[in-house]
Structure formats: C-alpha cells, structure tokens
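Input structure tokens:
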C-alpha cells in the first residue's frame, strides 16, 4: 500500500484532539475539509449534513428575532454547531479519496493513537507517581470514540474485507484493546458492546436476536447488582474508583432531585443537574423558547462557579454534557426533532446483496444507536473532543463507494 502525503491531514485531525484546544481543532478540521472538499455529495449524506445546518439556522433566527446574546458567545456557538458537519465531511472526503484503502488507513490511525495514549499513561504514572483512576484520566484522556471503531473493524476484519495478516491483526487488537481498557471509560465499553452486537446482526429483530439481547440485558443487570452490593468506595483503590463510577451509572444522568449542598450528590450527578437547570430555564421563558430555544450565544446559569476539565472556572454554560439539552437550549424541541432525524439518516441502510455493504449497514445502525446514548451523557457529535463524526462520515462514504462500484460492475 503506497503512502499518500494528503493522508497526513487526516492523521493531524485526530492527533490535534490530544491538545484539548478547540480553537486549534476547529482551524485544522476546517482547513482539511476545505482542501479535500468534493463538488458533490450523495442524497443521503446531503440530508444528514443539512440537518445540522438547519439546527444552526434555527438557533441563528431565534437569536436574531427574540434575543440579544453576546457577540463572542454567538461566534463560539457557530463554531461548535459546525463541528459535526466538518467532521462528517472530512470522513466522507477521506473515504472517497482513498476508497480502496480507507479502512486499513483508519486502522493504522487507530493503532498510532493507541500507542501515543499508552505512552502518555506510562509517563503520567512515572512522573506523577499515581495509579488513581481520576488522575490518570486527567493526564491521559477521558475517552476516545475512534479506537473502539478500530477495535471492532479489526475484530471483524473478514466481514469488512480488510486484508491484514493474522499476526499483525492480533498485535493491533492487543494494542488498541489495551489503550481502550486504560481509558476506563464506561461510554467506550458500552460503545464496543453496541457495535459488536450490531455487526453480529442482533439489532435486526428475530427470535435469535431477541434471545441474545435479553441475555445481554440480564447479564448486565446481574453484574450491576453484584457491583452495587459490593459497595465500592468513591475514593479508594484503582478498582474501587472505577466500580464506583459504574455503580452510579443509572442515576448519574437521570436523577431528578439533587441536594446542591451535598457535594457528593452534586458532583456525582452533575449531568442531571445541568439538565434540570436547562429544562427549567427553557420552560420559564415560555412557548417560544420551548419550540425554538434561546438561540445562538445562549447559556445556562449553573448558579455557582465550576472548574472544568481544562482548568477554567465557569458559571454560565454554553454547552452541557447532554446533546439533547444543548440543542434544546439553542434551538428548542424543533432542533431536537431535526437532530433525531439526522440519526435516522445515518442509521438508514442501503439495500444490497453485497455482504460488505450489509455489514457496513449493521455498523452504521450500531453507530446510530450509540449516538443516541452518547448524546445523553457525552454530547454526541457536538463534543469538543469528538472524533467519531470523522469515522461515521468515512463509513457512509465508503459504503457509497462500494454500492456504486457494485452497480457499475453489475
């Protein structure tokens, strides 16, 4: 496989996320999307990116006619709301430009990122002399949505016609798998489970899939019950800290009553607190706000200064952990409907007898299901450090390439 210099742009789009600087990420992603732009898109892909444009337009018109938010906040919101579009376009362009080797290029990217992550972890443990879950995640990163896709593509390399030697495949699986494990991200573990079930076809309703899904749910409930009853400590051993995070999953983002004076309750359930404040703010501003939100530049008053992951102190939040709450704030229920429509277009399959296309259909269906869940706790495509928009765009473009190739041959 001959290396192509333009491939460096795509590697840079992923590596730049390690610096946790959104302004720099936006510039690099925008330049890459512009340099690799195509003159035409498929109808389905056009529908997908149009959904995100519509959410941006609703936010713009709402602010224009009903609110007068700060100019800096409006500019910031434009860059945030454009991110899913840019990421999807980058991935789509990549698939079209390097169609024959798109998946193997992405696997190489994933392995490269995994190695960097493991080096950072090793350095963090030595430099800071810690095995604390929170400390390691602070220094090395909280999650990576890109690597689970690479892991699943390697796991099912035959299904996706990825030509890779067995020994290299096993080595790559070990590297990427270890990196994912070291993130200790509950979301990533759930992502892998959903994608594996999807590729295996268990989200296509039949007797077999119902049995497997039911067994998976039962096993999950039993495992959770064991963890809950073991009563892991909030601050304890490496294992305790991780299991405690697992224990609070059912209430962390769904709790409706939170004691703000109890710092444990407040910090453990901050995602729920954000949602409550957002819904209350929208509700008390009336019908217009419920329908089309508070527009570009709008924020949610958390009521106190909070330290963010990048060390800044913020009271007025422009974005929440929950993508649905964020879209509700910017563009109301109308925006949420459009967002759900975009996920439908991403998940929609292409009818074909081609086995590889059908497996991509399954993987994209799993991506849609995961996107719904990740949108509730991790902002979906709108997260500043999100990279899965690039991969989903690539999968959409690569599937189209295979479909056109099949029809031309046929």
């Amino acid at each position: 496989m001959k290396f192509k210099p333009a491939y460096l742009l795509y590697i840079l789009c992923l590596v730049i996320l390690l610096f946790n600087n959104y302004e720099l990420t936006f510039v690099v992603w925008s330049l890459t999307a512009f340099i690799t732009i195509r003159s035409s898109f498929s109808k389905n892909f056009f529908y997908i990116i149009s959904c995100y444009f519509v959410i941006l337009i609703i936010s713009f018109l709402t602010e224009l006619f009903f609110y007068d938010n700060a100019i800096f906040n409006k500019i910031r919101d434009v860059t945030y709301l454009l991110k899913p579009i840019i990421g999807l376009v980058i991935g789509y362009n990549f698939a079209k430009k390097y169609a024959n080797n798109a998946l193997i290029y992405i696997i190489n990217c994933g392995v490269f990122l995994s190695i960097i992550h493991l080096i950072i972890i090793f350095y963090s443990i030595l430099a800071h002399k810690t095995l604390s879950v929170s400390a390691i995640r602070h220094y090395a990163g909280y999650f990576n949505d890109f690597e689970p896709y690479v892991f699943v593509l390697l796991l099912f390399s035959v299904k996706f016609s990825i030509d890779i030697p067995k020994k290299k495949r096993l080595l790559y699986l070990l590297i990427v798998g270890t990196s994912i494990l070291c993130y200790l991200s509950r979301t990533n573990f759930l992502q892998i489970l959903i994608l594996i079930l999807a590729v295996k076809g268990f989200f296509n309703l039949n007797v077999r899939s119902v049995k497997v899904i039911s067994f998976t749910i039962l096993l999950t409930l039993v495992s959770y019950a064991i963890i809950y009853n073991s009563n892991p400590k909030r601050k304890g051993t490496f294992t305790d800290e991780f299991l405690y995070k697992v224990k609070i999953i059912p209430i962390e983002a769904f709790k409706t009553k939170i004691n703000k004076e109890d710092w444990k309750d407040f910090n453990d359930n901050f995602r729920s607190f954000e949602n409550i404040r957002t819904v209350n703010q929208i509700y008390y501003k009336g019908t217009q706000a419920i329908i089309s939100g508070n527009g570009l530049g709008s924020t949610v008053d958390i009521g106190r200064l909070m330290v963010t992951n990048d060390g800044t102190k913020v009271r007025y939040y422009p974005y929440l952990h929950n993508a649905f709450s964020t879209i509700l704030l910017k563009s109301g229920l109308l925006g949420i409907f459009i967002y759900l429509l975009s996920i439908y277009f991403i998940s929609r399959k292409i009818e074909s007898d081609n086995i590889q296309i059908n497996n991509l259909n399954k993987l994209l269906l799993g991506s849609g299901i995961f996107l719904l869940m990740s949108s509730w706790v991790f902002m979906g495509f709108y997260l500043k450090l999100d990279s899965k928009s690039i991969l989903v765009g690539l999968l959409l473009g690569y599937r189209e390439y295979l479909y056109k190739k099949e029809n031309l041959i046929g």
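The mean pLDDT is 88. Strands lie at 300-307, 313-317.
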